[in-house]
């Protein structure tokens, strides 16, 4: 790692007692050798599910040292087979030593131990922001593309997302359907969440928007019935075990009152800010179009 430029090391590696800086606009496009040539990181270790997915979209598998053990289930939903042959990690110090990465991608919640170990081993560690909007997705995708030396690939992903969003906007329904994400625990994702942005891109109205000061609000079953949305949206993952929340979301009152008005969506598309969020909006538009016309009655 002695060939890595001091500029990148100063940006990515925390001094003892400090934390790594989050990825910023001044991230170098590549890890530049001291001889002035150009080299891309070839042993990239991702320690966060969302960076796992974006990394798999941006670089060839042979340049990935490992992704987290959480990645596979989401990969199978979003891009089946993309992680085939890629090693996994659990974010441990032992794995950093064994895998000898030349770049570590982490989240802002990275443990101090991981940061300190990265500094001692000389592996640049960069904390990647989460994305809660399409603007965030563009920023993070572009910045990570620069960091791993795949700026063109990042721009292609962004352009594809923007084409889909433009097509959705051009064909937006005249009268948006009123919907809400309600999964049995009462929590409603509202303004400031990626879920809210996907709903609006799909051409629907998120009734949780009536709570402008909170990203997440709550509804009891009674409040949900009183709000009378046109449809209830519910995230679904085939990998999640049954839960009490699922049971509440399948309450007989909900089944009866919203018969034909319950829309499920693949939770993996909403969990991380990825360019595929535009695909999620397209899918949601199609599902909402199947909801019976008129207001729910009971």
Number of domains: 2
Structural class comes to: alpha/beta
Q: Strand percentage, roughly? A: 5-15%
The residue-averaged pLDDT reads: 80
User: What's the CATH architecture name of the largest domain?
Assistant: 3-Layer(aba) Sandwich
Write the layout of secondary structure elements.
Blueprint: H1 6-12, E1 44-46, H2 49-58, E2 64-68, H3 71-78, E3 88-89, H4 93-99, E4 103-106, H5 112-121, E5 125-127, H6 134-147, H7 151-170, E6 178-181, E7 187-189, H8 194-201, E8 205-206, E9 216-218, H9 221-227, E10 231-236, H10 244-249, H11 252-257, E11 262-266, H12 268-271, H13 277-289
Parallel strand pairs: 1-2, 1-4, 2-3, 4-5, 6-8, 6-10, 10-11
Antiparallel strand pairs: 7-9
Give your account of this protein's structure.
The chain is elongated. The protein has a five-stranded parallel sheet with strand order 3-2-1-4-5, with helices on both faces. Mean pLDDT is 80; it is low at 1-37. The chain is 40% helix and 13% strand. The protein folds into two domains: 6-151, Nitrogenase molybdenum iron protein domain (Rossmann fold, 3-Layer(aba) Sandwich); 160-289, 3-Layer(aba) Sandwich (Rossmann fold), CATH 3.40.50. The relative contact order is 0.13. It has 13 helices and eleven strands. Helix 3 (71-78) links the parallel strand 2 (64-68) and strand 3. By secondary structure, it is an alpha/beta fold. Helix 6 runs antiparallel to helix 7 and helix 7 runs parallel beside helix 13. It has helices spanning 6-12, 49-58, 71-78, 93-99, 112-121, 134-147, 151-170, 194-201, 221-227, 244-249, 252-257, 268-271, 277-289, and strands at 44-46, 64-68, 88-89, 103-106, 125-127, 178-181, 187-189, 205-206, 216-218, 231-236, 262-266.
């Amino acid at each position: 790692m002695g060939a890595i430029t001091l500029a990148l090391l100063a940006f990515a590696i925390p001094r003892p007692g400090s934390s790594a800086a989050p990825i910023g606009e001044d991230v170098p496009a590549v890890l530049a050798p001291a001889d002035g040539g150009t080299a891309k990181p070839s042993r990239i270790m991702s320690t966060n599910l969302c960076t796992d997915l974006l990394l798999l979209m941006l670089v060839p598998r042979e340049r990935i040292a490992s992704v987290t053990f959480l990645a596979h289930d989401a990969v199978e939903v979003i891009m089946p087979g993309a992680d085939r042959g890629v090693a996994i990690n659990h974010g441990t110090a032992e794995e950093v030593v064994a895998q000898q990465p030349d770049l570590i991608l982490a989240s802002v919640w990275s443990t101090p131990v991981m940061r300190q170990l990265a500094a001692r081993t000389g592996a640049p560690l960069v904390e990647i922001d989460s994305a809660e909007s399409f603007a965030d997705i563009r920023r993070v995708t572009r910045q990570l593309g620069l960091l791993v030396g795949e700026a063109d690939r990042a721009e292609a992903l962004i352009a594809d997302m923007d084409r889909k969003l433009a097509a959705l906007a051009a064909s937006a329904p005249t009268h948006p359907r009123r919907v809400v994400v309600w999964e049995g625990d009462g929590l409603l994702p509202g303004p400031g969440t990626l879920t809210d942005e996907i709903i609006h891109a799909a051409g629907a109205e998120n009734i949780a928007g009536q709570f402008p000061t909170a990203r997440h609000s709550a509804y009891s079953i009674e409040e949900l019935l009183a709000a009378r949305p046109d449809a209830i949206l519910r995230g679904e993952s085939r990998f999640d075990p049954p839960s009490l929340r699922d049971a509440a979301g399948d309450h007989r009152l909900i089944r009866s009152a919203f018969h034909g008005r319950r829309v499920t969506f693949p939770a993996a598309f909403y969990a991380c800010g990825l360019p595929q969020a535009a695909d999620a909006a397209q899918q949601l538009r199609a599902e909402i179009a199947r909801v019976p016309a008129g207001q729910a009655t009971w």
